[in-house]
Q: What sequence folds into this?
């Protein structure tokens, strides 16, 4: 408790709802502060922390395959199967259908050069989490 007081500088019990709970929630990344099911927030975390099973990570960790050879097995574009390719670009029917299903996520195309960052940081966290979950399941 002494360490907690020193670290946060707020007396325990001085705020309604419990100081510990408030302090811990403020330290979470914004996408984890939304009220979404665990399996969906887990999918977002896996994507952000490269804990997914896409070829770009799986082939690096298991077989040390060179980066340019970690290609997508869902299409014939010969692109590296990474987050951007799976979420935004892969032309395979399953992933294209998911983009149609979650079309509300693709309403405002990014004018920025970093499409993936803009896509992942959009306001509809729950919709994004569902799309990510289904894309990762599709590529499992
Ligand atoms: Zn592909």
A:
């Amino acid at each position: 408790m002494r360490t907690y007081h020193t670290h946060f500088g707020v007396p325990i019990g001085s705020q309604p709802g419990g100081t510990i709970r408030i302090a811990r929630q403020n330290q979470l990344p914004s996408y984890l502060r939304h009220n979404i099911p665990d399996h969906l927030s887990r999918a977002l975390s896996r994507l952000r922390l490269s804990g997914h099973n896409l070829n770009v990570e799986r082939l690096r960790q298991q077989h040390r395959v060179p980066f340019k050879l970690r290609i997508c097995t869902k299409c014939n574009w010969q692109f590296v199967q990474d987050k951007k390719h799976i979420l935004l670009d892969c032309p395979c029917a399953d992933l294209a259908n998911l983009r149609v299903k979650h079309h509300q996520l693709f309403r405002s195309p990014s004018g920025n050069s970093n499409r993936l960052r803009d896509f992942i940081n959009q306001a509809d966290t729950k919709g994004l989490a569902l799309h990510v979950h289904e894309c990762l399941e599709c590529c499992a």
